[in-house]
Every structure is written in C-alpha cells, then in structure tokens.
C-alpha cells in the first residue's frame, strides 16, 4: 500500500491508538502531513484513520475482530495492512499479538494498559492552555521511537534466523551452540532443541533452556539444587568448575567457557533434570 502525502485523524482527546497509528504512518512516510479535526473535509485526498467510517476506522458496525476475539482499533487495522511489508508475515503477527493487541483492546474496552496510560498523560489537563494538537505530536514522537525499535528488533530476528537454523542443523543431543549472541527463539520455535549455548553479553558463556511452545515452560530446566546458589555450591553439586550462576527459575546458567556450559547441559540430559548428580 502506498502511503499518501496527507493524513487525517480525529481531534480532541487522543489515545495510544491514534498516536501509534500516526507514528506508523510517519515511519513509512516521514514527510506525511497529518491534520486533526472532528469532520473529514469534503474531497480529502489522503489516508483517513480512526474517524470517517473508512477501512481504518474501528467505530463503524460491524466492527472487525481478530480470530481470538480481540477487536481491531485503528492502529491494528493499519498494521494488518502495513506491518508485513516492514517485518515479514511472522514478525508482523508476533508484534500484533504481543504489542498491538493490548493497545487495541484498551481503546475498544478500556482494559487497563500502562503504555496507554502513559500516552494519555500527554493530553492537556482540563485547565491547561496547551494545544491538544501540539501535545498529540509530542506523544507521536515518543510512540515513533518505541515502534521504530520494535521494527528494528523484529528485523534483527529475521537476520539472525539463518545463523540460528545453521547452528541447529549442526547441533547434537538437542544442544544448539551459537557462534555469537543471537535472538534465537524464532529460529528454534517448534524444534526439538533443548538448550542453547552462546557467548554471554556479560562475559563468559550462557546456556539457556528452550521453552516448550505449548506449555510455555522450559523443556528441561536446570537442577533445583543449583537454582539461585553461590558459585561454590553450584560447582560442588554439579562437579563442574566454572559454573558461576544458575537463575532461580532454572532456565539459565552462566559458565566460564563454552565447554563448561555444554558440559552442564549434558549433565542435565544424563540425569534428566534430576538435581544434578544422583
């Protein structure tokens, strides 16, 4: 879809819906001129959203609803058309599920959402002389930064997928070793991988349990006897020198080097998560 040079949305009090919708349009066309009003001008030559009963206005009946029952608001309607071109179909769906749907739900039902509250604070107070339009575009600037980072992160995942798939192809016994820190969850979704080992951004190496896509829990967590313990305790209980940390939730460890991280995973495999050595 080609974004026109002009946009129109409603005036008055604004919400995260119309703010993020405007931010999306600005990302796609930085020179777009958006105006606000209570009635769409006759013969308006541009994109109209969140007003006017068009394809990007969610106030008309029958309202459009996602298969899971979450109704669309203007932001979601625009993203449905424009998002896949920015990040691909899968990442567009994930951003919709994890980020956009809660905003759309707030706009349609009033369900509490902290980000929507934060955007709402940009509206002038009842006794303020500030321009609502000026405040609106202040909020849009913040939303644009947030959404731009979402898009940047999604495309980074897309770029990482090939490297993650190559590492998975070379893996043994469900232990995937990455050449560097990479966003790996998308590439290993619905695979039989059990652990991912990678250079830690904090130094050393980390090993992380892969989550089961059905239960949302680690397939094979690290032993409970390691969880949240000091390094000397973990080393004594595991018999492996160099394991410096095990998260209290048992999904992550940190080790001195790759060999130790892999050895920790193999120990868990050997005893099937039964608290380290029997």
UniProtKB/TrEMBL annotation:
Alphabetized Pfam families for the sequence: MYG1_exonuc
Taxonomic superkingdom: Bacteria
InterPro entries linked to this entry: MYG1_exonuclease (IPR003226)
Chain ranges passing through the membrane: none
GO CC terms: cytoplasm
Annotated family: Belongs to the MYG1 family.
Cited PANTHER family: METAL DEPENDENT HYDROLASE - RELATED, MYG1 EXONUCLEASE
Name used for this protein in its record: MYG1 family protein
């Amino acid at each position: 879809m080609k974004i026109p040079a002009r946009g129109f949305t409603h005036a008055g009090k604004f919400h995260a819906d119309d703010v993020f919708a405007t931010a999306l349009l600005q990302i796609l066309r930085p020179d777009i001129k958006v105006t606000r009003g209570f009635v769409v001008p006759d013969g308006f030559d541009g994109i109209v959203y969140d007003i006017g009963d068009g394809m990007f206005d969610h106030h008309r009946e029958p309202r459009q609803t996602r298969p899971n029952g979450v109704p669309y608001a203007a932001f979601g309607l625009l993203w449905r058309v424009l998002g896949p071109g920015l990040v691909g179909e899968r990442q567009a769906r994930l951003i919709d599920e994890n980020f956009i749907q809660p905003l759309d739900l707030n706009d349609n039902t009033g369900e509490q959402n902290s980000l929507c509250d934060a955007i709402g604070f940009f509206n002038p107070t009842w006794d303020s002389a500030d321009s609502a339009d000026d405040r609106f575009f202040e909020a849009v600037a913040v939303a644009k930064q947030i959404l731009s980072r979402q898009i940047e992160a999604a495309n980074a995942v897309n770029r990482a997928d090939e490297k993650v798939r190559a590492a998975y192809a070379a893996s043994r016994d469900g232990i995937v070793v990455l050449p560097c820190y990479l966003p790996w969850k998308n590439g290993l979704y619905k695979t039989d991988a059990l652990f991912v080992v990678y250079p830690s951004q904090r130094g050393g190496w980390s090993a992380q349990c892969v989550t089961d896509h059905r239960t949302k829990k680690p397939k094979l967590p690290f032993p409970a006897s390691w969880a949240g313990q000091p390094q000397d305790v973990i080393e004594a209980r595991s018999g492996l020198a160099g394991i410096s940390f095990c998260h209290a939730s048992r999904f992550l460890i940190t080790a001195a080097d790759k060999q130790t991280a892999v050895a920790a995973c193999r120990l868990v495999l050997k005893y099937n998560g039964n608290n380290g050595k029997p």
